[in-house]
Amino acid sequence: MDNASGRVQVWARVRPPIEQDHGPCHAVDCIDKTVRVRNDAEAVERMLGQADTSPSPEPKEFAFDGVFGESSAQRDVFMQIGLPVLREALRGINGTILAYGQTGSGKTHSLLHQSSKGEEAGLLPRLVASLFLMISQDVANVYDVEAAAVQVYNEQVDDLLNPDHQSGQGNNLNVRDGGIVTGLNWIRCMKPDEMLESFTRARANVVYAETKMNKASSRSHAIFQLRISKRERVFEAAKTGQKVECTIARLNVVDLAGSERVKKSGSEGMRFQEATNINRSLLAFGNVVSALAARKSHVPLRDSKLTRILDGSIGGNCRTALLVCVNPAFEHVGETLNTLEFASRAMRVEVDAKVNTALVEVSAKNLLADLNPEAHEFGKKVMADKKEIEALRKQSAEAAEQAKKEAERREKAVQEAEGHVKKLQQARYRRPGRFWSEFSLCH
Ligand code: ADP
Ligand code: MG
User: Fold this and answer.
1) Final residue of a domain: which of 329, 363, 397?
2) Mutational pocket test of ligand 1: of 11, 18, 326, the residue with most ligand atoms within 8 Å of the beta carbon
């Protein structure tokens, strides 16, 4: 299969209650692949203290590709969402995994959490570990893996892996068509630790922004990118200078800004421009999803920096997975419903992902790298196997040829014998006297 068309895959996750939650926390249930939200009028009124709200007492149901309840494990989230996208990336299909939801609903925990307790690790560290594990097991191919990370804050794209990020270097970068950020630092990683360390450094830079810019991180989008290219390992010097095909995939893991509407009081202290910009990217993202879901001819991808970066990553040549995170508290039922309605819309967005290929020249340097001792041993085995298969093929072709010749020889002998018998018979009929005399002698 050379492509992976279909639609955006959508999962919902309800996080467990935590200390910071106020009031009752069981507004959301997960049943099979459905999320049920109890929009209980009384409970909402009690929590919000507003007498005039009149939401429907009927629970609302939303069906997705999968749901993760309060006791779900980080591993299950990775196995269902991350692993299929990673597997496709290894054969050259772009992938994007986004987490959407209000602040405090579990987006960062699900995607990025790193902890000394392995089972608590989020999707990105698991993806990195699995990537390098798969690569190490595939000695027949050579991989090139790079990492990058950006933050979109206040309609500005900042390189989170610029060595001088904290002194303002690598900020306000341009985004070209196809979501390419110009001047971005891509770090080539040979081991999982190198990539994990890069992403940890990128995250620390987001946190730095949070302390510096007054909780900016919940209003900023963090995008962690991986570029994976793969080609067959070369074992023969004759291949030097030749072009071989490689697959290239880009993987994005996107921790979006909190989707809640900024309350008026929250933006009062900010400059007008900043307050407008904070929401612009997320609003534009919602509009892009709505336009794609409704199959509109115009998709407003150019309306914000975030949607420009995601050009092609949603509703295009990319396998896209969306994880929507919700808060279990009655207090947040309104935002939970907004989130789940957005997720239902996203399920109607079609994608048409293809295997991305390019030609690369095998340089002498490539050849040397390919023939590192471990790979060389494997290579020799592959070549020996190939030779053995070739010899067997030759043997069976020779045997088939011999059998054919033998069959032809026998066929010819039979034909000759038949011809001989015919001749004898004809001879006897031509000399009836003799025949009849022989006949009469016998009786
Ligand atoms: P967001 O990124 O959406 O703002 P966070 O991921 O920071 O939210 O989560 C908010 C809080 O809830 C954090 O303290 C986090 O540790 C906790 N949390 C979120 N999801 C879970 C979960 N599945 N299990 C345990 N704690 C969680
Ligand atoms: Mg977060």
Assistant:
1) 363
2) 18
